[in-house]
Amino acid sequence: MPDATGLELLAGELRDAEDESVLGTLHFRGQATILADPRHVRAVLARLRGKGYRHLMSVHGVDYYPEEPRLGVLYELLDRSRLDRVRVKVRVPTDAAVVESVTPDWPTADHQEREVYDMFGVVFEGHPDPRRILMPEDYEGFPQRRDFPIGGEPVLFTKDAAIGADYTQ
Amino acid sequence: MSATEAGPGKSAYREREESVELSHVKAPAAYDGEAPDSELLTLNMGPHHPATHGVLRLLVTLEGEVVRDLKPIIGYVHTGIEKTAEDKAYWKAIPVIERMDYLAYFFNAYAFCGATETLLDIEVPRRAQYLRVIHMELNRIMSHLVWLGTSALDLGAMSMFWYCFREREMILDLFEYSTGQRMHTRYFQVGGVIEDVPAGWADKVREFCDVMPGRVDQYGDLLSKNEIVLQRLRNVCPLGNEELLALGVTGPLLRAAGNPWDLRKAMPYCSYEDFDFKIPVGTEGDNYDRFAVRMQEMKESTKIIVQALDGLPEGPFIVEDRKVALPPRHELATSMEALIHHFKLVTEGFRVPPGEVYFPVESPRGELGCFVRSDGSSKPARVHMRDPSFVNLQATNAMVKDSYIADLIATLAMMDPVLGGIDR
């Protein structure tokens, strides 16, 4: 992890390239986070790649309910030669949950972005295969959101289809 | 009376057979000038297929016997563990999180505990770190044994399965001895381990470590000179370092392509810097290297276990901080304060300062990262597991494209995906 000063320098370099691309930084427990503008996330990640963070290890979503903007997408970057990690975070509201897909640049993001869409409803623009991945195709709602209740899932039995109690009804 | 015994005179059946006239049946027209065997066939493999190692469904597009495209379809064992964990206090979330990648339960528990400890900013006692290392490395051997047994079974080597499960039983007995459970032990706690290892356990582990390298050699004698195994694995479905890195593949699959990336060495955690061990790497990145790397890893793991037992420090096995760790049982009878702490921990759990951390560890399948977000309450606001099987699965298409469907089975076996971890 870059230290707090290193993180500020890194964020400064990103701001020099594009002023509004970086919204803030956070250094917590030795881990560095860059808060990026969702419209520029692909460019920010590409620039960080040029600075050595060549590997995208994880993409995951977070629901910050009740904070606004509610949804977050986090990208964990890794520099294998300097043994350094940095996290890029974007925040989007639920009514405009659109983030540019980074799958064309980082093929590893394919399944992970699909999971974030599946669980949080963040749409990744430009994703080659934007479908649900873990939940059924016809599932309604985004189960990892904080206001999605636990329990009450109908159990799917084919025998119930005959009496109209099928979950698709 | 059969046809051969019918003699020179034709039977009534043969006469009737010859009277059938087929000249009016036309041969099917050629498919736009192509040979019939060049037609593409889309086939479902799984979700209930013995060679998919769980409930993995593969949508395979075949041209004859050659795989032209492959799409993994997952989610059949999605149980919402990440969601469930949000509804449980930190220490009560450990048992459900352990059940994600069901062959690497100590790693799941460690990744979550490590993330929570980072959030709490607590230092884990050295003895607890060593005990964790011993259990994790035993778990790594156990996971590789299940992989080896089932993969050999996929290649047709039935007896390997029994040999591997024989040694796996020894490890599970050791787990039962130290933790009380064979699988999903809930042994790792936030701040350390739940209790010290019992008397005599270390000797049993040493006995196992004496036996295990010889057993790995026996497996090698059975498999690595076996012509069928070599034909099925050598130069089959290789994938180079750069493609693997782009796809985010980690663990033995990446090391098989010659990249010595292992988090235990690169970014040591849990006292791994104290131990002397090597990272086996392959050269070609084919199925044989994937096989050979894991075989050597089992031997290296026994070395780590022996070193950890030799250097096992004295001292506490869990942090003394009563706000995080349960007080010892005997204190409850004499100390009011211990009783209060116990009550608070068991009912509400401990509160964790707000923040977000990502804690990566080297699981048997690669980088297992646990992301935990705390909102300051006693329940995690978000738990996400970056499961190596989930990410590695994306490399299946790149690996098996344009190879035979039989090689797909061998490659899937050598990838060692665990669907519990993929679907969570």
Q: What's a concise summary of this model?
A:
The complex is a heterodimer of chains A (169) and B (424). With 169 residues, chain A is α/β, with parallel strands linked by helices.
CATH class of chain B: Mainly Alpha
Largest interface: A-B, 38 and 40 residues
Strand content of chain A: 25-35%
| Whole-angstrom Rg of chain B | 27 Å
Low-confidence parts of chain B lasting 5 or more residues at pLDDT below 50? none
Give the C-level CATH assignment of chain A. Alpha Beta
Largest sheet data of chain A: 5 strands, mixed
| Whole-number mean pLDDT of chain B | 88
Query: Structural class, from secondary structure content of chain B?
Result: alpha+beta
Question: Which terms summarize this structure?
Answer:
heterodimer; A: 169 residues; alpha/beta; Beta Polymerase, domain 2; five-stranded mixed β-sheet; two-stranded parallel ribbon; 3 helices; 7 strands; elongated; B: 424 residues; alpha+beta; Cytochrome-c3 Hydrogenase, chain B; three-stranded antiparallel β-sheet; 17 helices; 8 strands
